[in-house]
Amino acid sequence: MIRRFIGTVFVLLLPVTALAADATEIMKKSQAAFLYPGIDFKARVVMRLTAKGGQERTRELTMLRKNYGLPGGNQKYFIYFFKPSDVRDMTFMVYKYPAKDDDRWLFVPSINLVQRIAASDSRSSFVGSDFTYEDVSGRDVESDEHKLVKDEACGGRECHVIESVPKGGTNYSKKVSWIDKASLLPMKEEYYDVRGELDRTFTSDEVMDVEGHPTVTKRTMKNLKSGHRTEAAFEGVKYDVGIKDDFFSERYLRNPPKELIQ
Amino acid sequence: MKIRRYILLFVAAASFAQGTALANGISINGFVQGNFSARVTGEALPNSDGGDFLLGEERLQLELAGHNKAGNAGFLSKTDFFHDAITNTANIDLREAYGELTSRYFDFRVGRQMVTWGIGDLLFINDVFPKDWSAFFSGQPTEYLKIGSDALKFDFYPKFISIGLIVTPLFREDNLPSNNRFFLWDPFPAVSDRQTVNPDKNFKNVEVALRLYRDIGGFETSLYFSKGFWRTPSLLLDNTTTPTQISFVFPRLLTYGFSVERSVLGGVFGLESGYYDSMEDRAGTNYSIPNSQWRYLAGYKRPLWREATLGLQYYGEYMFRQGPYRTNLPAGFSVQDRLRHIMTTRLTQMLWHQTLRLSLFAFFSPSDVDYQIIPEVQYHFTDEFSATVGANVFGGKDSDTFFGQLDKNDNVYCALRYTF
Known about the structure:
The structure holds two protein chains of two kinds. By secondary structure, chain A is α+β, with helices and mostly antiparallel strands. Chain A has helices at residues 2-35, 133-137, 250-254, 258-261; strands at 40-50, 56-68, 74-83, 91-96, 103-108, 113-117, 144-154, 157-166, 174-180, 186-192, 198-210, 213-223, 229-239. Chain A has a 13-stranded antiparallel beta sheet. In chain A, a hairpin with a 2-residue loop joins strand 11 and strand 12 (213-223). The radius of gyration of chain A is 20 Å and the shape is globular. Chain B is mostly beta strands. Chain B contains three helices and 21 strands. Chain B is globular and about 65 Å long.
């Protein structure tokens, strides 16, 4: 009797766990396609921050990224700011570890100071935009429970719809992603706050093929509560630039090589 | 007149360039700023420059930078043109001006440049480079606490370690608050004959500072050494019983130190220490030369909640020869404790998409029983235009301690800045 009961439970659970495994697998592949293509990557990022009243601000930066290990593994990021003018020449470096807090450094040129920054606030805003640090460099896929809700068409593509619920405490309750079946890139994401209300939406507005890697070159994050939105355009995207390991160091944080940041 | 013509030329060039890169890799950037600070204690400083005003100025900073096509040779010059409204004088301050060469294994920079070492937040142990405490206490933006060194900087990058060597041929002292603007502790107010004696300009007095650094098992580790001078002057009397003349002198100093820093418990933890070898008075018997000291600092910073961070520091200065120092101290001088220690707190909250920054920094010394508290609000109206309002609140049990002597100088400051 008991054995039959256990058997029934297994039978009932089987498709559910299989679906969860599928969903996690899709999310891993999507993260690999979205944040890990190439050995390294370089882009000029122009962010337009628009307040509800229409007031605009601009962030312009060069972003360099290099992978260490498999997709989903460690990465190093280097950011050089061109705009706004009060942060021009500032640089920012991140050693990203999926399973623990990042190491972050900021260089302040006016006093030639390299400062280490505490990094457990991955949900904080990146340079005042609607993107969080986590939105820029990714969130560990294992931190969430993923569920494949359905497949449906989205923006002329065939998409998986996946619901991701954080396992630990964070400041949102759920994320729903529309993942393009062909490129595995997220075409749309909805973030729900702790009260379960729709808080922010992400959209991939332009996808281009760059050196064989489908790349989101225009993206928008909207905060539905505040009416603030950020549009980010990735220009001059290049993969496999040949960034050397010692580039991610205090030396280049203080004095970044011109040919890499231009 | 000459200054005005120079400024006009620069403004014309700057408005033409509009903060963008010119052809052949040269760019012009900078800011225009108005900055005022008023003493709010109601105390009138006798014979002061500005009465209730500690600071009143309009400032134009122009930064000109460029590099060659290969990117291995470049220059930067950052010049402040400012009008001191208190004395109604026009001034030029060369903040930085240097040329540099870079290659695979070394960098070389010559000229006036900022050097910032160590892990302290407004506390300095192995950062033995010049500071402007007058600017800091009177509400200028924090970047003005640092002033440039006229130096040659060599950086070497062999595979296993990084090395920074700073050679400073000409001594530059700290800029301390003056009694034209600040109420300060003065043990000999009747002595008006005062002179500052800078170290002679010779090869023997060339200052050298060395830093070796690398990551050791997740700990960012630096070793420091420096040979130079105390940058804060010591007071030397011609006669200790009935002084008629005071000389401000800069005794020789050697420092040896280290710092380590790493991520711990969602924050960053750091330790720094330094031995200050006051080589002209190792016995500690000369009142006019600071005792040798051991300085140490422990700091921890971490995010509190969204867009908010907290930084805490504990700092100490231990005197090695307090006995001989006490015995030989002339009457009128205040006695320094064997151990002086300071705790600091920094709280920062960003709001409204990081356009509004609220911050609070506080120094408190349990040994001197004195403090400085700096609340500040900064708002960015646009990407280019920002306003800062803050206050410096000083106090202490005694009027002869570092912050305590500034008790009557509580001030409120504001700055408006347009960056281009």
